[in-house]
Amino acid sequence: MSVQTSFEVLLVEDEPLVAIVAEECLRSIGYEPIVAHSAQEARDAIEGGLRPALAVIDVGLPDGRGDELVTQLRRRHPELRVVVVSGYEEDELRAQFQGDRGVTVVAKPYTELDLARATESLGLELREG
């Protein structure tokens, strides 16, 4: 398990208010979120050199499906851990990513505790400091 005092997190969420709340949740549990509001913004950030330990990706994005973005990013960067968030179709998403230990699914609405548990299940653990 990787233990650090902070991680950069790519947060991909198109709804501004949801992005603000998610960003606050991530900060409160010790992460450093970088927000992208579309799949293209997320791809641009990664292609521009961003190497987050974690991505939190909403399924419903204005320019594509978040699950497709997950597949693209994981293909190019298999070390990237991903939390897929969705307000619907959680069972289908869990089935889609079953067997991929680098991806977990969290249902919306979620709490700080839900995100903390999801990241721990992916082998990411923050240390106080």
Automatic annotation (TrEMBL):
It comes from the Bacteria. Pfam families: Response_reg. PANTHER family: RESPONSE REGULATORY DOMAIN-CONTAINING PROTEIN, STRESS RESPONSE REGULATOR PROTEIN 1. It comes from Phenylobacterium montanum. SUPFAM superfamilies: CheY-like. This is Response regulator. Gene3D superfamilies: 3.40.50.2300. PROSITE patterns: RESPONSE_REGULATORY (PS50110). Keywords: Phosphoprotein. The keyword Cell wall biogenesis/degradation does not apply. The modification 4-aspartylphosphate is found at D58. InterPro entries: Bact_response_regulator, CheY-like_superfamily, Sig_transdc_resp-reg_receiver. One of its GO terms (biological process) is phosphorelay signal transduction system. Residues 8-123 form the Response regulatory domain.
